[in-house]
């Protein structure tokens, strides 16, 4: 048996071509200035190590903020960018029991540096994916769908027919919120920024299960209230933008509703009208997936249970990868630029 594993390891090692390379930065700054494609070293495998050939990894706003030095956690230098992605196991250390060569894996935690062709990770830092999960779904599962899942579960009790309002609804996180909510029978009001091809975007989000898609501008208009009367007032608002966008969503929340801020794409503070607090007793909360993982580090079943539930939704066709644009690793500069360009609505995925 040991011989068979070794033989398959050799076969897969042969499939890892060239020297290990990765997108490295040695100081904070704008990504196009500080990130470079370089050779990276591979540590010894070790007893609990897993040699992984990375296949695909997205560029998320938090990756960009980490490079800029404005994120809540910053890496030691030199650092390899990227916090999520999917890879295939090439070889395992002698004490590794949960993985074997050929398995598809995603990071169990942030900070592994996934923008690279291959790496050695500790077994406990990896989660095994069922083999039938599409590559792009696996590559984008660990951050946004998990965040959407937690925010829909952990703040208010939602039952079928209840409603949620969210901004940046076309983001990776927003698309996951729409689909997970639809699978649970929860209605969604989805706020996006206006753009020339708005109808195309509206159609796409509705095809994912969105009940209403409206622009930030329309949300401010009194007639929108009538439109939204067809579904119950939302109990939950999910805010990835801050600024005026968050304030507008508050106006549509139910009495004692909750707004969860999890991103700050506008870079503007959230301003709360006093009436929202006094007359509606609105509750304001925040969410950070990294903190949730830290808080639940002793309860690994909670993380693997959530991943299993999300994989079931994927297998049933109820949760698809966000709109993606795949870019070869060598063209990383184009991908970094596109990831920071407004109105793109496609997650940039680096293909290794
Ligand atoms: N707290 C957590 O644990 C957690 C987890 C996951 C994500 N997040 C945060 O959630 C947000 C979305 O992440 P993602 O990966 O889903 O993003 P994404 O797929 O890259 O999409 C970015 C979204 O932000 C919108 N946007 C950009 N600038 C904006 C502005 N000035 N005003 C309003 N909207 C703006 C974009 O809309 P346009 O199409 O109009 O440009 C798009 O909808 C980010 O802030 C991210 O850091 C937080």
UniProtKB/TrEMBL annotation:
Entry's EC annotation: 1.3.1.104
Enzyme class: oxidoreductase
Compartments where found: Mitochondrion
InterPro entries per record: ADH-like_C, ADH-like_N, ER, GroES-like_sf, Mito_Enoyl-ACP_Reductase, NAD(P)-bd_dom_sf
Keyword terms, alphabetized: Fatty acid biosynthesis, Fatty acid metabolism, Lipid biosynthesis, Lipid metabolism, Mitochondrion, NADP, Oxidoreductase, Transit peptide
Gene3D superfamilies, alphabetized: Medium-chain alcohol dehydrogenases, catalytic domain (3.90.180.10), NAD(P)-binding Rossmann-like Domain (3.40.50.720)
Enoyl reductase (ER) domain segment(s): 29-350
UniProt family annotation: Belongs to the zinc-containing alcohol dehydrogenase family. Quinone oxidoreductase subfamily.
Protein's recorded name: Enoyl-[acyl-carrier-protein] reductase, mitochondrial
Record organism: Gekko japonicus
């Amino acid at each position: 048996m040991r011989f068979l594993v070794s033989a398959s390891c050799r076969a897969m090692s042969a499939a890892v071509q060239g020297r290990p390379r990765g997108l490295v930065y040695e100081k904070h700054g704008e990504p196009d200035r500080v990130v470079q494609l370089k050779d990276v070293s591979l540590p010894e495998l070790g007893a609990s190590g897993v040699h992984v050939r990375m296949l695909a990894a997205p560029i998320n706003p938090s990756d960009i903020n980490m490079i800029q030095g404005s994120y809540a956690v910053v890496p030691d230098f030199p650092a390899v960018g990227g916090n999520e992605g999917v890879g295939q196991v090439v070889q395992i250390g002698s004490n590794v029991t949960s993985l074997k060569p050929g398995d598809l894996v995603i990071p169990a935690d942030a900070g592994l540096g996934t923008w690279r062709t291959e790496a050695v990770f500790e077994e406990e830092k990896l989660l095994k994916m069922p083999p039938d999960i599409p590559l792009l779904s696996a590559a984008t599962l660990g951050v946004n769908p998990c965040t959407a899942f937690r925010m829909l579960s952990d703040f208010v009790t939602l039952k079928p027919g209840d409603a949620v309002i969210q901004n940046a609804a076309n983001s990776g996180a927003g698309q996951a919120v729409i689909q997970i909510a639809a699978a649970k029978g929860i209605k969604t009001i989805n706020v996006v920024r206006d753009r020339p091809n708005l109808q195309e975007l509206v159609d796409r989000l509705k095809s994912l299960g969105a009940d209403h898609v409206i622009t930030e501008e329309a949300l401010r208009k009194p007639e929108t209230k009538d439109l939204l009367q067809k579904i119950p007032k939302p109990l939950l608002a999910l805010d990835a933008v801050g600024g005026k966008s968050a304030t507008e969503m508050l106006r549509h929340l139910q009495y004692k509703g909750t707004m969860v801020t999890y991103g700050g794409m506008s870079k503007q503070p959230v301003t709360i009208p006093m009436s929202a607090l006094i007359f509606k007793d609105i509750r304001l909360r925040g969410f950070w997936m990294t903190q949730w993982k830290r808080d639940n580090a002793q309860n690994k079943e909670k993380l693997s249970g959530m991943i299993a539930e999300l994989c079931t939704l994927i297998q049933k066709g109820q949760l698809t990868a966000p709109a993606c644009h795949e870019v070869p690793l060598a063209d990383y500069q184009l991908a970094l630029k596109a990831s920071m360009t407004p109105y793109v609505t496609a997650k940039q995925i680096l293909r290794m």
